[in-house]
Amino acid sequence: MVIIEMNPRISRSSALASKATGYPIAKISTQLAIGYNLINLINDITNNIPASFEPSIDYVVLKFPKFNFEKFNNKNFLSTVMQSIGEIMSLGKDFKESFIKGIYSITENDFLPSFIKGKNYLNFKFKLIKKIK
């Protein structure tokens, strides 16, 4: 695990990391703050394994923001002041799979460019995946 940010509070990124790894960051942090030792704490999710053990995962997790383009008269652009209205978490066996799942889950049906509409969507999807590889 790579630490990308340190906060004295539990943030949305901390919640994402908890969901992704199955490690109860908020609970363990609270117990450490009130004086418990990490060696003595048990991870409730894995039961008999101490909380000091690093979670082992064999997947990639990505976080994607969701923007509300409908609010801006169908202008498909991002500016420096546009804020996301939510976010999604995607899991995959590698970066490519997780990335594609994330894109699919935040887009609407009308996301497909006009040159694809009316054609075989699955055929396009496989060509796109092949190009990414």
- Note the total helix count: 4
Summing up helix and strand content along with how strands pair, one would put the structural category as alpha+beta
Domains (count): 2
The outline comes out as flat
Percent of residues in beta strands?
Answer: 5-15%
Low-pLDDT runs of 5+ residues are: none
Read across the widest sheet, the strand sequence of neighbours is: 1-2
Kindly state the number of beta strands. Answer: 2
Query: What's the rounded overall pLDDT mean?
Result: 73
Task: Give a quick set of tags describing it.
alpha+beta, single chain, 4 helices, 2 strands
Give a nutshell description of this structure.
The protein has helices spanning 12-21, 25-33, 95-106, 121-132, and strands at residues 60-66, 86-92. With 133 residues, the chain is of the alpha+beta class.
